[in-house]
Design a protein that fits this description.
With about 210 residues, this protein is an all-alpha fold. It is built from seven helices and two strands; from the N terminus they run ααβααααβα. Helix content is about 65%, strand content about 5%. It has a two-stranded parallel sheet.
Length: about 210
């Protein structure tokens, strides 16, 4: 657990300077875009959605900082699916170091993309397949950019990241289902999962259809 805490702490502290550098550009460009949308009367500004979009931007800057800039490693390429995954799972109980590698690589590569799936599903009202593709494309972009850098490009990372995005989608749909049921009993706490101007409808399943108006 200490290793996980240190990793998360580093994930935040290493990326904060880059967030502060890029944040003014995001705010300016986003404000211009929203002003244009409002001027053209395409849709009204949704404050709740903009707050989530802001945190999505911050998270992606932290993610790109961690994968592109911080702690460069060995320049290596693995194109054999599941080779690293199987090796690390088999060796995880041999030593503390092996357990640490398993935790940070396999669990970490899945966990770090869970927010990606949740953000994409909420902001863009994507279904199961589109959320998985968004996670896959994001991970593929990272792996391609890492090729000329002193980092390892691994097809297993692509697999694990996509799994993480899918888990994020499932978590979001479960939270939305809880919200929808709570909504039937109370009119409070509606701001968290509702993203206007989309029209809400009952979630038929965890991998249910998209909302009307998406």
């Amino acid at each position: 657990m200490r290793a996980v805490f240190l990793y998360l702490t580093g994930f935040l502290t290493d990326g904060i300077p880059y967030v502060l550098i890029t944040l003014p550009f995001y705010l300016i460009l986003r404000s211009l875009y929203l002003s244009h949308q409002k001027k053209k009367r395409l849709h009204e500004v949704n404050t709740r959605r903009e707050v989530v979009m802001f945190f999505y931007f911050v998270f992606m800057i932290l993610l790109f900082t961690q994968t592109f800039i911080v702690n460069p490693g060995i320049n290596d390429i693995n194109l054999v699916p599941f080779r690293i995954i199987i090796t690390q799972i088999a060796n995880r109980n041999y030593s503390y170091e092996a357990n640490l590698v398993f935790l940070l690589n396999i669990i970490g590569n899945i966990g770090i993309f869970v927010p990606v799936g949740m953000f994409v599903a909420y902001l863009f009202r994507t279904n199961f397949i589109k959320t998985a593709l968004a996670g896959l494309c994001t991970s593929l972009f990272i792996e391609i950019v890492q090729l000329p850098l002193e980092r390892t490009s691994d097809v297993d990372d692509l697999i694990l990241n996509t799994v993480g995005a899918v888990i994020g989608y499932v978590v979001y749909k479960m939270l939305y289902l809880i919200y929808f049921r709570m909504k039937n009993h109370s009119s409070g706490h509606q701001w968290l999962f509702r993203a206007e101007p989309y029209t809400e409808e009952s979630p038929n399943s965890v991998c249910g259809k998209k909302h009307r108006g998406s």
